[in-house]
Specification:
Layout (H helix, E strand, L loop, with lengths): L1 H24 L7 E3 L2 E3 L3 H13 L11 H46 L9 H13 L7 E2 L2 H7 L8 E4 L4 E6 L5 E7 L3 H14 L10 E7 L2 E7 L6 H6 L9 H21 L4 E2 L8 E3 L5 E3 L6 E2 L18 H6 L4 H17 L4 E5 L2 E4 H9 L5 H4 L10 H14 L10 H8 L15
Helix pairs in contact: 1-3, 8-10, 8-14, 10-13
Length: about 450
């Protein structure tokens, strides 16, 4: 509208300018003569005399009579043409302005359709973001989700939506619509929490693997940070093994498949990332299971690149899963993850926690307790989880126990690479569960 008003103002000024020029330029006399020495204005009588002199004196230069009426016509024509062009230009700009106004209204209408009529959630961008991650495999980007959307999707972070609790905060179920669920991790704390939040977000936007959790979006609200993940319907491996069901939902072959999935995730970090990544906090609570019990690695807040200087890496991890060389000497490499994998393998095999209290002042690790019995074939069947004890092939049991023993060796050089572990376990998984598939 401002542009239109300015052009109208210019149009009126132009007309006024033309008219004023016309008035000023018009002389009082109606006839003028033009000589070769310049124009001279004559009165009517002088003009008649001049004509007579021309007749009597042929040598005098020709006198051209110019009527101002013709000049006025030319100016008027020019003014009409200029006004017409300016009018066409104004009409074009007006039509363009109407078009832009309609386009703006349509875009606003479409954006409003993205909101759920019941609770006002902007569902479409979130769902599309998740689908793009899963289908297109886009990297290095993450959706920013507004806080009020998370609040509404988690019922104001109600207790009934709590999925679990970690060292930095709780994880909530977020119900965005009838078909789309997500898990929201609420991170609270000081500088360490901020670093872990940034670290995990930076890693997850670059990882794309079927055995690593997908990040849907993030949110920062004051001092509180939120990470939004794809929903894993069967929760964590820790809850499945040590929760109310005590592993009853996990068959022997399902446990082997979970072990293979975890090994595949670690192989991606160790062998296919450049530079290689060390998870540094692998444990059963950071292994999540979807509706088909496919396992995915999560919680990358402590992950670092392999070869990071020890002085720059703060000693972190979970008691029972931390490798001895890292705990005692601060040495960290991919074999530290292999040790933690061996502990998870023992949990799957025996159904015991990584560390159990023997008395109020004494604890025992699963490695210390199991190691003497893992190499004795007569004792091994008796320490297996009772839920799966009578459902397994003993030959497979001995093979899995041998892999676990190698993974938890105190000396890192004696531990196998995760790729070798994966090759040893895949043949034990039935074809229908993906045992014959070699997925990087």
């Amino acid at each position: 509208m401002k542009l239109l008003g300015m052009l109208m103002y210019m149009w009126v000024c132009s007309i006024c300018l033309f008219l004023s020029t016309l008035v000023i330029a018009r002389p009082d006399k109606t006839v003028s003569t033009i000589f070769r020495f310049g124009p001279v204005f004559l009165t009517g009588k002088e003009a008649i005399l001049s004509s007579q002199m021309e007749a009597e004196s042929p040598g005098i230069p020709e006198v051209r009579i110019v009527h101002h009426q013709d000049l006025n016509k030319k100016i008027l024509i020019a003014l009409v043409v200029a006004s017409s062009l300016l009018g066409v230009l104004l009409l074009f700009l007006f039509c363009f302005w109407i078009y832009r106004l309609k386009s703006w209204k349509n875009s606003n209408g479409k954006s409003k359709q993205n909101f759920d009529a019941g609770n006002g959630l902007a569902l479409t961008p979130i769902v599309e973001r998740f689908n793009s991650l899963m289908v297109a495999g886009k990297k290095d980007s993450v959706a920013v989700i507004e806080y009020h959307l998370l609040e509404a999707a988690t019922n104001n972070f109600g207790e009934s939506n709590v999925l679990g609790e970690g060292g930095r905060g709780r994880v909530y179920k977020a119900h965005f619509n009838e078909k789309f669920l997500a898990a929201v991790k609420r991170i609270e704390g000081g500088q360490d929490a901020q670093k872990e939040f940034e670290n995990e977000m930076n890693w997850l936007v670059t990882f794309r693997h079927q055995n690593i959790i997908s990040l849907v979006g993030c949110c920062i609200h004051g001092e509180t940070k939120f990470l939004v993940y794809e929903m894993m319907q069967n929760g964590s491996l820790e809850n499945q093994l040590h929760g109310p069901t005590h592993g009853s939902d996990l068959t022997w072959h399902q446990r082997l498949k979970i072990a293979v999935d975890v090994a595949r995730g670690l192989e991606y970090l160790h062998e296919h990332c450049n530079p290689p990544i060390v998870h540094r906090d692998l444990k059963s609570s950071n292994i999540l299971l979807d509706s088909s019990f496919n396992a995915k690695l999560s919680d990358f807040g402590l992950a670092v690149t392999a070869g990071t200087q020890n002085k720059n890496v703060k000693l972190s991890g979970t008691l029972g899963h931390v490798a001895p060389e890292y705990l005692l000497e601060g040495k960290l490499n991919d074999k530290s993850d292999v040790y933690a994998f061996g502990v998870v393998l023992l949990e799957l095999l025996m159904g015991r926690r990584p560390v159990e209290k023997m008395s109020p002042s004494q604890c025992q690790s699963i490695v210390t307790w199991a190691m003497p019995q893992l190499t004795d074939r007569s004792k091994l069947p008796h320490i297996v989880d009772p839920v799966i004890r009578d459902t397994m092939d003993l030959k497979q049991l001995y093979q899995v126990a041998a892999v676990a023993v190698l993974c938890v060796q105190p000396e890192p050089s004696y531990r196998p690479l995760i790729t070798d572990v994966l090759h040893s376990l895949i043949p034990l998984v039935p074809i229908e569960l993906g045992g014959s598939l070699r997925i990087a």
